């Protein structure tokens, strides 16, 4: 199966021609222009035909003359510009084009088809299984409807299996997909999933679309039923300027096992795609309020079985601390398992290759180990200090060894505290030095080390 992405943009495309936001400016300056989303499968099966699709085929150097099946997801004008059927008739094609779609989309085509045009209009519904020249197509219910628009009520997704066995999920437009549809995708093991991600960082859109909060949850749901598997090429489509600039978007999608590609990219099944290496151990550093915890949590959103290791302790007398912990807990997915412990090495040893462990954070863990070793009870140079520091050193050795040995996917959060002025007190200097050394040792055994500054991520 070969899938030519004629477009990967939202209804308004990306950039939006009327906009000068940073995202649109980046797209313009780099020439990363995305037109309305449509996919041509093996040159014979077209998934949606919005206003840009025919011209995009020209730009790709292919003709639509061999298209025998047009699959319409819904009647929104970025997915269906039915005048294409009229221009097809001017080319005098003798082969019949089967147009399949929900009733609202098929009805929108009727005025554009002449009585003798070789076009067959067919209404399909979720649950149908349609055989088309060796392809098997299953329409599925999308979740594009938010109750305001008759054109979204019967919107469909398509599960397409090619004669060569290649399998594609064409999933646009949709919000979080309903349970019945997810269940219908059990064990699909898709080669390619085209999954819409319209709204990027904008979460208040109130539409039947996905964004950067719901997209990873959707990938996780598809993974949980075996629809997305390790080799699945998950490509985010229907992208709008509410997304961060393309390089940042790619960086956000990568830990979720998803990617963006340019318009006119060809996705081939049957050949293993060049997988971006998925690091197993990541260290995320940053200053206070830099966004490091948020970044670490986001990397876990599409992963099954996440264990969140909180190292801050209970602190029942500290209202500010309790409020901070509650805010962190509220934004974590409910399915995550939280472990409040300083035994990070034990938590890592107990995790399997199927698990993902997020440790937040190493700096608090170190403070806890220094407290437990009673380092602060002894004066420098006095009896007891050397033994206390030796105990902390053993704890650090154990942690570094556990990170190096784990088979789980691990993200460690730690503070970068060495850049400010020299702390006034001996305790501050000791803590700064201990944490600096520990961060450096953890970096040596991690696959990736990133520094978060002002919410931006710098790979080190
Ligand atoms: Zn759309
Ligand atoms: Zn739509």
In a few lines, what is going on in this structure?
This protein is an alpha/beta fold.
Q: Output the radius of gyration.
A: 26 Å
| Ligands (ions, cofactors included) | zinc ion
Distance between the termini: 38 Å
Nearest-integer average pLDDT: 93
Helix content bin:
25-40%
Shape: elongated
The number of helices is 13
Task: Describe the SSE topology.
Layout: E1 2-7, H1 22-30, E2 38-41, E3 45-47, H2 53-60, E4 69-71, H3 83-90, E5 97-101, H4 103-109, E6 119-123, E7 130-132, E8 135-141, E9 156-161, E10 167-171, H5 179-184, E11 192-196, H6 214-224, E12 233-237, H7 246-253, E13 258-259, E14 266-268, E15 281-286, H8 292-299, E16 306-310, H9 319-331, E17 337-340, H10 344-350, E18 356-360, H11 362-372, H12 385-405, E19 409-415, H13 426-445, E20 448-453, E21 456-459
Parallel strand pairs: 3-4, 4-5, 5-6, 10-11, 11-12, 12-13, 15-19, 15-20, 16-17, 16-18, 18-19
Antiparallel strand pairs: 1-2, 1-14, 2-3, 7-8, 8-9, 9-10, 20-21
The structure holds zinc ion (2 copies).
Residues 74, 76, 144, 173 line the site of one zinc ion.
Question: Would you write up a description of this structure?
Answer:
- The chain has helices spanning 22-30, 53-60, 83-90, 103-109, 179-184, 214-224, 246-253, 292-299, 319-331, 344-350, 362-372, 385-405, 426-445, and strands at 2-7, 38-41, 45-47, 69-71, 97-101, 119-123, 130-132, 135-141, 156-161, 167-171, 192-196, 233-237, 258-259, 266-268, 281-286, 306-310, 337-340, 356-360, 409-415, 448-453, 456-459.
- The chain is an alpha/beta fold and 460 residues long.
- The strands form 3 sheets. It has a 7-stranded mixed β-sheet.
- It is elongated.
- The mean pLDDT is 93.
- Bound molecules: zinc ion (2 copies).
- The site of one zinc ion has 6 residues, from loops.
